[in-house]
Amino acid sequence: MNIDLHTHSTASDGLYTPAELVKQAREAGLSLIALTDHDTTNGLEEAQAAGQAHHLEIIPGIEINTDHAGTEVHMLGYFLDYQQPAFQQTLQTLRDRRVARAQRMVTRLQELGLQITWERVRELAAGTVGRPHLAAALVEQGYAASVADAFNRYLSRGRPGYVPRYKLTPLDAVQLIQSVHGLPVLAHPAELPDLDSLLTSLTQAGLAGLEVYYGEYPPEIVERLHALAEKYQLLSTGGSDYHGPGIHPTPLGKRQVPAEIVEQLRSLASERRKQPAPLFELPPYQL
Length: 287
Ligand code: AMP
Ligand code: FE
Ligand code: FE
Ligand code: ZN
Hints:
The protein is of the alpha/beta class.
């Protein structure tokens, strides 16, 4: 069984619609994918309909972007009861904050003399807006040679177009995901500073897994992360983080992930479902 537990669609910053993604997954020989769009579950219905047509299972997922001591920390969530209204309201608020941030970044770039418009960025983003859409607008106008080049020149932290994100913490994301009975999994953790102390606090709060088999991680990194997962009794998950060509290097389904992880996630999710889901409230907004 070939699986991929980390993928994106046009519902966030992926280049293919959920239905196209499912078709590609089938063509790549996969039998299960998790769709994990940034701050949205709006691609899931289309993905699940396409999955039924193509005999491919879709795990409902999400990826929540957070900030921890000045670094990006991304939290995946799996098997969420995503239709809950309060949860959808929270995601809408997170997306509204992304719009405000992206507009401020456009203003920054305009102040640098670049001809890029919010209208065009919004057109390029069918769903959740993010820096990849700003990057696409910069490439289109000839200010960068590629998405990666646009990040290096303008959009990465410390570059002149950068505006910090809203201050949702990794702990907030763990709680948000658990408020709809989802399993929180720390995404692409290899470069995070103080990983041990982060894992100590997040595991106490209910973290369920660590993304060990990620993208282009080489065997020595996978081994180190797997040992950490065992130490904290976390499930070892993985996936490609496929967004379509040009954004991340790993093709869809081209990251080996042990298939038994799916059943382990499934049984942990149903175990945790026996407890009532904790309530979640967004912390006050400070830009
Ligand atoms: P945002 O959520 O708006 O802060 O944008 C973050 C997203 O940009 C990540 O989820 C990645 O998909 C993408 N990204 C971040 N850094 C780079 C990079 N150097 N090159 C290409 N894509 C990147
Ligand atoms: Fe992304
Ligand atoms: Fe990520
Ligand atoms: Zn991702």
